Input
Amino acid sequence: MRHDGTTRERRRPFGLRTRLVLAFLLVAAVGAGTTAALTFREARNAVLGTAQDTAVASFRAQVRELDVLLPVSRPDLEFALRGIARNGRPHPWYVYAEYGSVRLSSATSPTSTVITPELRRRAHSDPHGSFQRVVKDGVPYLTIGMPVVFEAGENTGENAGRNRVVPTGLVLFAVMPMSEEQANVEALVVAARDGALPGLAVALVPALIAARSVLRPVRELRKAARSMGSGRLDTRIEVRGSDELADLARTFNESAGGLERSVNELRQAEARARRFASDVSHELRTPLAGMLAVTEILDEGADRLDSDTARAVRLISTETGKLAVLVEDLMEISRFDARAAELNTDEVDAAETIRKTLAHRRWTDRVSVDLPEGIRARLDPRRFDIVVANLVGNALRHGGGPVSVRLRTAAGADGTAWLVTEVADRGPGIRPEVLPHIFDRFYKADAARTRSAGSGLGLAITLENVRLHGGTVRAANGPDGTGAVFTVEMPLGTGEATA
Output
């Protein structure tokens, strides 16, 4: 049973607009992140490098200016260490001294856990000293190791006149906390982050604008496609610009124009064909009426003729009758094509209408029926008679006995009451490749059957009459695979039926 429904457009959570905006924001985020990372790296290196260079240069200068007598005096050395610590640049230092087994410092502890063995080894071996950045308990430090040396002049040999660097065995270490630089670096991170987030928010505006400009032609194309699908073949899209989307709009317009021309040509050809069939059928009615009258007279006197003449007379009468049926069917189908067919409905007893159809054609003894009483429907009695007669006649001619007609009612999903008429036979059934074409005009299921008692339009006229009532008709094979079953469903158009 067919019921019309509405097609709702599904909302896609990740549609083209969303993906375009996300792609735009991703590019903006990557660009902002890369710029922020490079800026942060350069600024970090500048902050730490400036502090480091200042501290190393200042410490080296103070170590060179250190004036102590060897062997060292502990009070003098402690005094010197505190002086160096006070003059630390860019921040105060903690200064430690190592001289043999002597360990002194400007702090409360004579040794430092921040100074690494690697720095201590390089400070003792390199007369120019060394430095190292160390993180201890989350706090960054700059550690510098510098040996105290004195220069001695050479008086003889190849090195005469040159100064020779002589280590004294005294090594000084400076430890400078870099908390302030670390704070500056963290401030740079926060600034980069806080600057990127508003940047992304600002980038959202051009992203939406770009997505809108890209999607506008797509929406117009979708709207135009739907309009063409509803039958408006003159639909066109406004072409803007010269990009790929504009090329797509031009291609759509060209295709739509070609389709419109082709459809108009087909419609004109179809209209001409229908008009021709209607005109021919109408013109044939008058001579056919005279021919039928003559053949009836000849049939009445055929028994008084010789056998060959009588056979020819009966053949002419039979073929004239077939021609008359074909002409009537052509005129009927032409009225459907011209949309001139009308319904003249009346409330009738469906079972009684079917009985009259079978009795009028003398099929009562050849057809078994299951017709419950009391089913009343609002139908066009003449057209319902044609529907039943065409289906039963088709079953008797091409199917196999017994042929049965069953009447019942059914309720649709929306509560609509339907009149259901089933015509079944016990013949060989309908081949699967034939089923899709069973209601086509002049379609022959058996290519070898070039002549038949029917016009070839019976099932097509049945389909049009059922559609005119707002119903459906379908063909299928029986449940056990034998015989054909035609099912007609029409709205009752009246109150609830009683079966």
User: Anything to note?
Assistant: The chain is about 50% helix and 20% strand. The CA atoms of residues 240 and 246 lie 6 Å apart. The first strand starts at residue 94 and ends at 99. The radius of gyration is 53 Å.
